[in-house]
Design goal:
Blueprint: H1 3-12, H2 18-29, H3 39-46, H4 50-59, H5 65-78, H6 83-91, H7 95-116, H8 121-132, E1 135-140, H9 145-155, E2 162-164, H10 173-176, E3 183-189, H11 195-206, E4 211-216, E5 228-232, H12 244-261, H13 263-278
Parallel strand pairs: 1-2, 1-3, 3-4, 4-5
Helix pairs in contact: 2-3, 3-4, 6-7, 7-12, 8-12, 9-12
C-alpha cells in the first residue's frame, strides 16, 4: 500500500462513516491483498454493499474500482516485496533486530515446512480420520494446551462429537470409554513432553485407534505409536520455542477437513448460527 493511501486512510478515519471505517479497517489490515481484490470482494470482507465501496473509493481519490486496482498493481510491480529485502531492512535497524531477523527466518522456514506437509500421505490420512471418525478427542498439555483447545473449539463448528480432554478426571473416559471404538485422537505436543501425552499415545495405540500426533521434530516417541505424525519446526531465536507453526498447521487441517465434509459443514454451521442467535451469543 502506498504511503499516500495509508496517510489518506489514517487522516480521514475519524470523519468516515461507520461503513467507511469498516472498509478502511479492511484495507489497513489486508493491504497486501488489495492488488488482487475487487469492489465485490472488499464489500464482502468489510460487510458493506459494493456500491458503498465504490463511493468510498471516489471519496479517497479513485474514480472507480478499476482505477484503484490498477494503482495497487502498479505499486506491487514497483515495490521491493521480496522477503529477503524485508529481512535486510530489519537487520539494518540494529543489533537487537539481528536476533529478530534470525527468528523471522526460522519461523518462515517452519511455515514453509507446514505447507509442504499437505502433499504427504500422512496429511491425507489425518484429514480423512478427522472427517470420518464418529468421535474425536483433542488433547494438549501445559504450554500447548491452548492450541489444542482452539483446534477442538473450531473443529466443533464443523462436525459433532468433538471433545477437548485434559485427563483431569484421571481416565480420559470421554475418548477411551466404553462404546467409543470409532474414536480418533489428535494429540499436540512439544518439549518438554508431558507424561500424560505418552500415556495417552500408548492407550490409543493399544486400542488401535486412529492417532494423529502434531509435535515438534524432536519427539522421539511419536512414531512408536502411530504412522500419522505431523512434525513442525519449533526452533526460535526468542526465549520460548515458537508455536506459530502449530497454529498454521491446525488452520490448514481444518480447511482440508471442510473440503472433505462438503455441504455437511454448511448445514451444521447454519444450525449453530441459529442457536447462537437464539441465545444471543454475540453482540452485533
Amino acid at each position: 500500500m502506498s504511503e499516500k493511501l495509508l496517510e489518506t486512510l489514517r487522516r480521514g478515519y475519524q470523519d468516515f462513516t461507520r461503513a467507511e471505517k469498516s472498509i478502511a479497517n479492511y484495507m489497513l489490515a489486508n493491504h497486501e491483498r488489495l492488488p488482487f481484490d475487487t469492489a465485490a470482494s472488499i464489500a464482502e470482507a468489510a460487510g458493506v454493499s459494493q456500491m458503498t465501496v465504490s463511493r468510498f473509493l471516489r471519496t479517497i481519490g479513485y474514480p472507480d474500482s478499476g482505477a484503484f486496482k490498477a494503482a495497487m498493481r502498479a505499486e506491487l510491480d514497483a515495490s521491493p516485496l521480496m522477503v529477503s529485502d524485508r529481512i535486510d531492512r530489519i537487520r539494518r535497524a540494529g543489533d537487537e533486530s539481528q536476533r529478530i531477523a534470525e527468528n523471522f527466518e526460522l519461523e518462515t522456514r517452519a511455515l514453509l515446512g507446514v505447507y509442504e506437509q499437505r502433499t504427504t500421505p500422512q496429511w491425507r490420512d489425518a484429514v480423512d480420520a478427522i472427517a470420518t471418525s464418529a468421535h474425536l478427542g483433542v488433547s494438549g498439555f501445559q504450554t500447548i494446551r491452548g492450541i489444542a483447545s482452539d483446534f477442538a473449539s473450531r473443529l466443533s463448528y464443523l462436525r459433532p462429537n468433538v471433545h477437548c480432554v485434559d485427563g483431569a478426571d484421571g481416565t480420559f473416559a470421554d475418548i477411551l470409554g466404553p462404546g467409543l471404538a470409532d474414536t480418533c485422537i489428535v494429540l499436540f505436543e512439544m518439549r518438554r513432553y508431558t507424561r500424560l501425552s505418552l500415556l495417552l499415545a500408548r492407550a490409543a495405540s493399544r486400542r488401535k485407534l486412529p492417532l494423529i500426533i502434531v509435535c515438534d521434530r524432536h519427539c522421539h516417541w511419536a512414531r512408536d505409536h502411530t504412522d500419522i505424525v505431523l512434525p513442525v519446526q519449533t526452533e526460535s531465536a526468542l526465549f520460548w520455542d515458537t508455536q506459530t507453526p502449530f497454529v498454521s498447521l491446525s488452520s490448514l487441517l481444518l480447511d482440508d477437513v471442510i473440503a472433505q465434509l462438503g455441504d455437511r459443514v454448511s448445514d451444521r454451521v447454519e444450525r449453530l448460527r441459529l442457536l447462537q442467535d437464539e441465545f444471543e451469543a454475540f453482540d452485533g
